[in-house]
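Team,

Forwarding the record for the chain on the shared tracking sheet. I've put the sequence and predicted structure together so nobody has to dig through attachments.
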Amino acid sequence: MTIFARIYHAEAARNAGLAMPPTQVLIYGNAKRGTPLMLAARIVALNLPLRVLVRDDCQGST
């Protein structure tokens, strides 16, 4: 899998003068596998690439 992008929500919050625990969204996938799916059914592109939320639970775990 390749990480295509990271969205740093906590950083954006800080830049807006707000506080937020460390929170990121990772956008990841595999172009070799995803492209044929999107060619077969373009609507699949709404769900690809995949995303996962990574956050600090404020108790030392993510």
